[in-house]
Amino acid sequence: MTTVRLPLFPLNSVLFPGLVLPLNIFEERYRAMMRELLKTPEDEPRRFAVVTIRDGHEVAQSAPGLPDPTAAPERGAAAGFGKDPLKAFHKVGCIADAATIRERADGTFEVLATGTSRVRLTSVDASGPFLTAELEPLPEDPGDEAGALAEGVLRSFRQYQKRLAGARERSLATGADLPDEPGVVSYLVAAAMMLDTPTKQRLLQAPDTASRLRDELRLLRSETSIIRTLPSLPAQELTRGPTSLN
After folding, report:
1. 185 CB neighbour count, 10 Å cutoff
2. Rounded to an integer, what distance in angstroms lies between the CA atom of residue 241 and that of residue 198?
3. Each residue of 88-112: pLDDT tens digit?
4. Strand partners, 102
5. What are 165-217's pLDDT values in tens digits?
6. Of 15, 22, 82, nearest in space to 49 by CA
7. Do 169 and 85 contact (CB within 8 A), yes or no?
8. Known PANTHER family for this protein (predicted)?
């Protein structure tokens, strides 16, 4: 299978195809990555790969007390990810296309990217100023009955939204059109649900769209039932992960 080599950006969250990823870049290794991406002609995609961290720190130890007062500062592209960075990351990630890369006066960057397609991580190179990776494209197989499953997921997702809004004592925005293409539905719902990172990663690496939708249907019914029986809990008690779609 054809592979592609791209800069690698590990995060503590999961990026899905079609979802927007805002980034505040301040570590030198990722600043170097952005400077390299800016060399790409404006009419070509500025792509990098996002993978979820399995074992390690999103921000490397740079000084005593940041974040662990007992750890020595680390330097280099693989700082915070151990001797073998490949083992520190989940193997299925997502390519991101940086639509906006804006350098601030202090040398940090504001980046707005969008997830495009899934990839499988095969190797990691830490010899340069930032991590790069060899990646295999991971096609999205629709699977069986994806269309019918998407309809069921959308119905359950609307109920989930209503229950969550009620438990949080917030109003629910209405009138927004939800997509009906099964693959898009599966990624949107996976990103929007309040789930922990391992569960979101499981959804990202589902073998096909139908399998992802079946898993989401089970999750939506379970989560909606929990929210229904615990309507007075504070919002933070209802979530099992960050509220950001990133």
Report:
1. 24
2. 10
3. 999 999 999 999 999 999 999 999 9
4. 110
5. 765 545 444 445 678 899 999 999 999 999 999 999 999 999 999 999 999 99
6. 15
7. no
8. ATP-DEPENDENT PROTEASE LA (LON) DOMAIN PROTEIN
